[in-house]
Fold these 3 entries.
Entry 1:
Amino acid sequence: MTPRPSLDSFRRLLRQERDDAWAVRLLRRIVFGIAGAYTLFMLASTSMASFITMAALLALAALVWLLRRRGQLLLGLASTIVTAAMTGYLAAAGDIARGSSGGLLSGQAVFGYWALGGMALLGAWMLKRPRGRRGVTVVLADVLLVGASGVGMVAPLYGVPLGFLGVVGVLMLRSGTFSGVNRREPRLERRGLRRIAAAADTDAR
């Protein structure tokens, strides 16, 4: 009987011959994997906060690994996360500058910024004929949203409306609606001129 492939591979791993590059690389990966898993376990077991942090980091790493071939989606997600953090920080800084911490208005503004960030991310992928890359569309909308949150530090009532106008404006400009309208206008003019010329020819006859 011939040895099974699994037993053959296990024997190659145990022998560690210099000419067997597969066995050498696999042993290194196993060793580093066990060391990394043990380190993460020790860090996560120190406290509840450390456990939550490590779980979040592992989930983020798994998400990045799953979306490693979708660069635009990764760019959009990263921009949305950074924008959420920056808008929350600017809202808190505005509260501290005004002498009121944890105000109701600033809390509503933060949730409004987060909702607009999600709207920009979803809207970029809902465009049928986008002008440019979708991840860049999310970044442009998030930049305007951060600027609107900066305005909201001084005037809290105007932050979210300005952010909404900025996100909607970017989505409209990056969509193919205006380009399609601009392309149709010359065609309609040409058709109208042709009809006028044809009508003039029939009248002359």
Entry 2:
Amino acid sequence: MNKTIKMMAVSLLAASLLIPGLTSAAEMSMKVDYSKFTMMEKNGETWVPLRQIAKSLGYTVNWSKADGITLTKEIMMEEMKDMEVKDMEMKPKMYMITLMPGNKDFMVGMDKMMLTHAPMIMKNTTYVTKDFIEKYLVNPMMMDM
């Protein structure tokens, strides 16, 4: 009987720690309604306008000739205080992506990454693959920020 009570207590504790994390993840989950944007098919990939979609997801978009395109967004992240689970709190972190049209290399925070397809400019608009949007803007990878 004592073993059963301990097992139930451990299960209850584990569930109580897991549920807030699931709520936070659900709140951070974003969706893109691609029907609102002009999409293009090229080389078997779907290309979408970066600036419009990034702005619709709450990113600030900046461009400079020297640095290319910089996307920034403040994202709430769970952070531990004093390495104890009970001391978790939400803190804002700046998520930043820097990329240059025509170049496969880009930065996520301070981490250099490589795309399969370089962003391209068509009709004065920068396009990226739909995969890039889903992987790096809809579900941001939290690197060294």
Entry 3:
Amino acid sequence: MRSREYDLDFRAKARRTSAWGVGLLTVAALFWTWCALLLLTPYQVEDRPDGRSTRECESRLSTEYGTANEGLQRGDWCQDERDWPEALLILGLSVPAAVAGTVLFTIGTLSGRMSAHAEAMRELDGLADARNV
């Protein structure tokens, strides 16, 4: 394989690596959005097991000792519907995706830039050699 073909193939691989990084960062952003929706939006729960009546519950973060935090002690079902472990699990799943996405994006971007820099240096060396002859 000639040098130019190898360089073009290397840059294509770098773009693919960078694209995988962007994809994983997008997945992490979706997890963060899902977690934010769970914590910041009000929701409804069924008061009785038969499902005939519903109750409006405050969001998990905007309440202080309200419907979301007191639980079944007062006879409401809000605490069991959206509990902290679910939100923390979703947030925890975003961490590996964000780290891997950041690493892949950085590697892909730096590889492409280093390849472009090496090509520019080869061209400059060729111009300098042509001038010195």
